[in-house]
């Protein structure tokens, strides 16, 4: 018998060379809504983009990557 379970979402923010692991505040929210939620604590998220999800350690991992300082 197969059992389907929903994987936890985890958000990774790279700030000042360190990875910060952010928990999912509300599983029904979109990735952009989560980014806006955390933008109050981490202003770098106002100009960040979310990467494509990757499954890692039984969780769906999204990386918030800043686009500040990049050209092109």
From TrEMBL:
<dbReference type="Pfam" id="PF14454">
    <property type="entry name" value="Prok_Ub"/>
</dbReference>
<dbReference type="InterPro" id="IPR022289">
    <property type="entry name" value="PRTRC_protein-C"/>
</dbReference>
<protein>
    <submittedName>
        <fullName>PRTRC system protein C</fullName>
    </submittedName>
</protein>
<dbReference type="InterPro" id="IPR032866">
    <property type="entry name" value="Prok_Ub"/>
</dbReference>
